[in-house]
Amino acid sequence: MTVTSILSKSALATYAAAKSRINSIGSQLVDDTHQNEVERLLNALSAAAEQYCGRRFGLKARTELYAPPRGERLQLDQFPIAAYPAPSAELDGSAITCEIEDAELGWLRADGGWTGATYEEEIENDGAPGEYTASNATRPGSAEHVLAVTYTAGWVLPQDVAGHHAWTGTHAFTKGEIVKSSDLHRFAVCTTAGTSANTEPTWLDRVNMEVTDGTVVWQMLEELPLNIEEAILIAVTLHWKMRQAGFADYLNEMNTAIGRGRGGLIPDALLPAFDAYRRIE
After folding, report:
1. pLDDT confidence bin for 202, thresholds 50/70/90
2. DSSP 89-120
3. Which of helix, strand or coil describes residue 21?
4. Relative to the CA of 104, which of 53, 84, 150, 163 has its CA 20 to 30 Å away?
C-alpha cells in the first residue's frame, strides 16, 4: 500500500529509522499501515524538543529582529551559523558590518558595537538615582531601535539527506549547491563554482571549514548531532511500545519535561541529550 507521508519538515528523525528501531524491540511494523501514526509521534516529539531547547534545529535562512545589545557581541537565536551566505544586519534600515565570532555558539560580532555601545555613555545624574543624561542614545530597554539580522543556521536533518546530491568527480558545481559525502555523514555548500577533482576530497568536521576540490571551494555544514536523533528514536520507540501494551495513561506518570506534568512527551531520562543545545538567554 502507498501511504502519503505527513512527516514535518522539521522532524528530527525519519520514519524509516523509527520503523527500524521499533521493529528491533519486537513491536513489529510488518507494513506501513501505521506510518502516519508513527510520523505524528515523530512530529510531536520533534516539536517538544524544539520547545524545550527554545530554538529550531534545521538548516534554514531566516531574518530575526533583536533589541540592539550593548557591546560588540550578539547572541543569535539559532546556531550553528553558516558562513555562506554571509550574515547581514540592519539597524533601523541602515546596514551594519558584522562577522561570525563563534559559529557553534551563535555569536555575531560588530566592531564598534550595534549602537548599544552608546548606551554606555548614559551617565546617572549626581544626586538623582535613576535619572540619566543620554549622549545621543536611546534609554536601555526602550526598544525604540530595531536590529534585523539575516542569516542561515542549523543542521542538515536526517530527512534532508536524500534531497542532496552525492559528490561526483569531474562535475561542474554551482554556487550554493549542497552535496553529501559518499558516507552520507558530511555535507558541504559550494561557495566558489567550478569543476570537482577526480577523487573525493577529504571532508572536514567543523562548520564553515573550507575544502578545495579541483576548482570548487566548499564550506562544511554539519548534520544533526547523533545524540539528538537517538533521543528522538528512543522516545518514539518507548511511546509505541507502551501504546501497543495498552498503557493509555503512561504519559501522565512518567513525563515532566514538556508540559510540566500531564501531557509531557519527552521522558526526563532523555533530557541530557538536549541540554547542550538549549538556547542561551
Report:
1. very high
2. EEETTEEE--EEEETTTTEEE-TT-SSGGGGG
3. helix
4. 163
Q: Considering only CA atoms, which of 118, 68, 70, 117 is closest in space to residue 90?
A: 68
From the list 79, 71, 137, 80, the residue with the least C-alpha distance to 109 is: 71
Give the DSSP per-residue string, 215-261. Answer: TEEEEEE-BPPHHHHHHHHHHHHHHHHHHHHT-TTHHHHH--SSSSS
With H, G, I as helix, E, B as strand and everything else as coil, classify residue 275. Answer: helix
**CA–CA dist 144, 161 (Å, integer):** 42
- Give residue limits of the domains in the chain: 15-56+226-275, 60-153, 158-221
| DSSP bridge partners of 173 | 194
Distances 107 to 72, 90, 99, 121, 280 between C-alpha atoms, Å: 10, 16, 9, 24, 11
